[in-house]
Amino acid sequence: MPTPRFSVIIPAYNEELYLPRLLDSLDVARLDYDGGPDQVEVIVSNNSSTDMTGEIAHDRGCQVVNIAKRTIAAARNGGARAASGDILCFIDADSAAHPDSFNVIDIAMRSGRYIGGATGLYLERVSPGLLFSYICFVPIAWVTGMDSGVVFCLREDFESIGGYDEDRLYGEDVKFLWQLRRKGISRGQSLARLSQVKALGSTRKFDQHGDWHYFTMAFEALIGFLSGRTSDRDIADRYWYRPER
């Protein structure tokens, strides 16, 4: 079998309700890709789910990788180890991809200007609290080029920086993009922000914790991240590892 152009890696813990929506969107994006749907493989990193996540992924034709270590970083890295594509793409299971994602990412990466990047995202619903939270973080993305949504890079660059830091319970995505950015700067490349193909951003954490909760949570998490606390189990469990789903 020829090497696919893309490997899409989905870290998933108890995502039976949201995963079908994401897989539907990826099916559309694969069919829309000029290189053909066979050039995009989809890998679900099943991170010790206790629901039907693994079965749903298998029935939809995804490659399923079972990851026992309960960190989001380990799930992403485990999927990357199983991947065979030239470009690795990471997207959350409660998201949805834009139909033209792979075409736009492919053009950006073939230009040689970018070491990788992200598509960014749009919120699935809007409220004053959500909108204010979103606006507050936009300048950070503008200044650093670091964003969320579909995050992508070449496999060789992923491996060269060691992937995601599995010692971190959260903030591993920020550290990963920061390291990727530094590597890009060293060879005259930057991070791409492909806002024309934004992914859907789930608001389920706002539904659970309230539309204005992000400021206190983000401040608490930022202090932990900057102080080097890699095992801040309390906030990690509350917000990422023991959600009500």
Keywords for this entry:
single chain; 245 residues; alpha/beta; Spore Coat Polysaccharide Biosynthesis Protein SpsA, Chain A; seven-stranded mixed sheet; globular
Can you offer a commentary on this structure?
The chain is of the alpha/beta class. It has one domain (6-122, 146-204): Spore Coat Polysaccharide Biosynthesis Protein SpsA, Chain A, CATH 3.90.550. The chain is 44% helix and 17% strand. It has 10 helices and 9 strands. It has helices at residues 19-32, 53-59, 72-82, 101-110, 128-144, 155-160, 172-186, 204-209, 214-226, 233-241; strands at residues 6-12, 40-46, 63-66, 87-90, 114-118, 121-123, 151-154, 190-193, 199-201. The strands form 2 sheets. A 7-stranded mixed beta sheet has the order 3-2-1-4-7-5-8, with helices on both faces. Strands 6-9 form a two-stranded parallel sheet. Strand 2, helix 2 (53-59) and strand 3 (63-66) form a beta-alpha-beta unit. The longest helix has 17 residues, at 128-144. The mean pLDDT is 89.
Q: Alpha-carbon distance between the termini? A: 38 Å
Helix content: 40-55%
Please indicate the count of domains: 1
- Shape descriptor: globular
**Would you state the CATH class?**
Alpha Beta
- Overall residue-averaged pLDDT value: 89
Q: Please report which band the strand proportion falls in: under 5%, 5-15%, 15-25%, 25-35%, 35-45% or over 45%.
A: 15-25%
Reported CATH architecture: Alpha-Beta Complex
Number of helices: 10
**Neighbour order of strands in the largest sheet:** 3-2-1-4-7-5-8
| CATH superfamily caption | Spore Coat Polysaccharide Biosynthesis Protein SpsA, Chain A
Biggest β-sheet description: 7 strands, mixed
Order of helices and strands: EHEHEHEHEEHEHHEEHHH
Low-confidence stretches at least 5 residues in length (pLDDT < 50)?
none
Number of strands: 9
